[in-house]
Amino acid sequence: MRSIKTMKNLKGKTALVRVDFNVPIKNGKVLDDFRIKKALPTIKFLQKKGAKVVLISHLGEDGTRNMKPVANCLRKYIKKDITLLENIRKYPGEKKNDLKFAKKLAKLGDFYVNDAFSVSHRQHASIVGIPKYLPSYAGFQLEEEVKNLSKVVKNPKHPFLFILGGAKFSTKMPLIKKYLKLADYVFIGGALANDFLKAKGYEVGKSLVDNTEGIKNILKSCKLILPIDVVVKNDTNSAMAEFVSLRKVNEVKKNEIIIDIGPSTEKILAPIIKKSKLILWNGPLGKYEEGGDKATKKLLRLVLKSKSQVVIGGGDIVTVLSKLEPRNYRLKPNIFVSTGGGATLDFLAHGTLPGIKALK
User: Fold this and answer.
1) Which pLDDT score, from 0 to 100, does residue 327 have?
2) Domain co-membership, 165 together with 303
3) Which of 4, 55, 95, 116 has the fewest CB atoms in 10 Å of its CB?
4) Which domain holds residue 221?
5) SS (H, E, C) the chain
6) Which residues are catalytic?
């Protein structure tokens, strides 16, 4: 990849910069500006060199949300004039990678910079289309991601623990299969675990379930670790709706929702975390937005204290991580917090991404 550090004579030129400001927003305010902060070094470098900066980002999946809360947050860090385009997914040509649309976007700048690692696994116009029409470079955050994740790809240390949480089972199935080959231990938590528990014949009540097709072969792996106890809440409209109980996985009732893994499961993971030399963690282990974040926080603290090489990625897990104290974990050389979720896993599985290939 060509780095923006190699560029000269930028004064008066316009940089078209793809960033990922797809951040959590509530009541018109950004809840976690981690991704915004990660893009600041690239933005400020370009401005210091005299370039005008036009930022491209999406917010949400369908393009209906506007970027005003993001713009307001950005003003806290950027004092010079800057242009932030409206939500790029508002336009059908973005996801379709319409080259006519990409060409129109390219006319807005003199050169293109990709600093959006977390969406570089997408074949979208603002990721792989624009580089066909403009000189293209990697921003500092994209370089940082590739540098740190390449260490894991080229020479993974063992024992290797892979912790996978969150949802979207159908998109993560190939990755689960991949890491059952690469890692020594694979723990499945979060909503993903519901699919596995259901496939084993356990009741999961009204918990989120995606798809159990193809799981039975995976269940045979001796590397696979699943929860043995869970935290549930009652799914009723009564005053008891928020009542939380601890259950073994064979005790969940039909009107209950699994919101977290239990303490017995934590005890299984704790010694594995301590002895692992490489830990890759993607996704929370419970419904953190509904109070199911206790196990995630407890195990994150263990991971952050370890001397292992640690890679943590995924928007939701980073949101939980950002609430922990102390926050100086990001300064530890053995810990890398990726801005990516699916992009991080795809890069670790394949060693590159479409958005990275487009810059060459």
Assistant:
1) 60
2) yes
3) 95
4) 158-307
5) CCEHHHCCCCCCCEEEEECCCCCCEECCEECCCHHHHHHHHHHHHHHHCCCEEEEECCCCCCCCCCCHHHHHHHCCCCCCCCEECCCHHHCHHHHCCCHHHHHHHHCCCCEEEECCHHHCCCCCHHHHHHHHCCCEEECHHHHHHHHHHHHHHHCCCCCEEEEECCCCHHHHHHHHHHHHHHCCEEEECHHHHHHHHHHCCCCCCCCCCCCCCCHHHHCCCCCEECCCEEEEEECCCCHHHHCEEEEECCCCCCCEEEEEECHHHHHHHHHHHHHCCEEEEECCCCCHHHCCCHHHHHHHHHHHHCCCEEEEECHHHHHHHCCCCCCHHHHCCCEEECCCCHHHHHHHHHCCCHHHHCCC
6) 35, 168, 315, 342
